[in-house]
Specification:
The protein is α/β, with parallel strands linked by helices. It has one domain: Vaccinia Virus protein VP39 (Rossmann fold, 3-Layer(aba) Sandwich), CATH 3.40.50. It contains seven helices and ten strands. The strands form two sheets. The chain has an eight-stranded mixed sheet with strand order 8-9-7-6-1-2-5-10, with helices on both faces. The chain has a two-stranded antiparallel sheet with strand order 3-4. α1 packs across α2. It is globular.
Length: 260
């Protein structure tokens, strides 16, 4: 069962969620900057983090069907209401092969009913030199042990488990990091000290962060036939934007349905 989209939305609007977002965002911008000229998608609930990549050519927010979807971005630009968020199948995304430069999986893996097939779908949609960042709750961290936040839902991972998963899906880990060393307690006193907790945690107990973060690239030595999804695609995207998506030529003919 997937966490409801409104639970994610409410968490990131809270003080605790805002602090957590800040520490994770710092790692993401170190890796991808502002995403200049890249086609980027997020799967799960990546909406708050896609805001970081203002220089991207295209940003798409994909939510698994059981979770629900919320309009993103929420603001209006040039008096035209935009929405780049869509409901998608867990392992059948409305994208052609090799159309994304970057993929962020955030709150998307822990509750996946089929992590292996999710990784195969990620491999399919990334270009040959594409990169993926996965952010998951760490099994040894406090955040996975307390169900007061979305990081306490689903299946947390150890580093070796996550590495085994991505390698079996023909990815190669290129960089590991962690974040959220402070306890997930929404009190002003503790949150004021969160930055000190993060600095101390990274030095003293680096293996006990609340989340694991891995950046991975496609392993192009693998035969392509092993990673193509065999599931018949029956779920159509629901995106509130009547215009075609264009991702560097790979999406020239892709149309999105209108969600009123």
């Amino acid at each position: 069962m997937r966490t409801d989209i409104l639970d994610f939305h409410d968490f990131y609007r809270s003080h605790l969620g805002g602090v957590a977002r800040g520490f994770i965002s710092a790692r993401l911008t170190q890796a991808w900057g502002d995403g200049s000229d890249l086609a980027i998608a997020g799967f799960g609930y990546a909406n708050p983090y896609l805001e970081l990549f203002a220089g991207a050519q295209r940003r798409l927010a994909f939510s698994p069907g059981a979770q629900g979807v919320i309009r993103w971005p929420a603001r209006e630009r040039n008096s035209v209401s935009l929405n780049n968020a869509s409901l998608v199948g867990e392992v059948s995304w409305p994208l052609p092969d090799a159309c994304l430069d970057r993929l962020l999986i955030m709150h998307g893996l822990e509750e996946s009913p089929d992590p292996q097939r999710l990784m195969r779908e990620a491999w399919r949609v990334l270009v040959d030199d594409g990169r993926m960042i996965i952010v998951v709750a760490h099994r040894r961290g406090l955040w996975s042990m307390i169900d007061a936040t979305p990081f306490g839902a689903g299946r947390p991972y150890l580093k070796r488990q996550l590495n085994g998963l991505i390698e079996s899906a023909l990815f190669r880990a290129t960089k590991w990091s962690s974040a959220l060393y402070f306890p997930p307690v929404n009190t002003k006193l503790l949150l004021r000290a969160a930055r000190a907790w993060e600095r101390a945690g990274a030095r003293v107990w680096p293996g006990l962060g609340g989340v694991l973060m891995v950046e991975a690239s496609k392993d192009m030595m693998a035969p392509t036939g092993l990673v193509r999804s065999t599931q018949k695609r029956s779920l159509r995207p629901v995106i509130a934007n009547p215009h075609p998506v264009r991702l560097g030529g790979g999406m020239e003919n892709f149309k999105r349905r209108v969600e009123d």
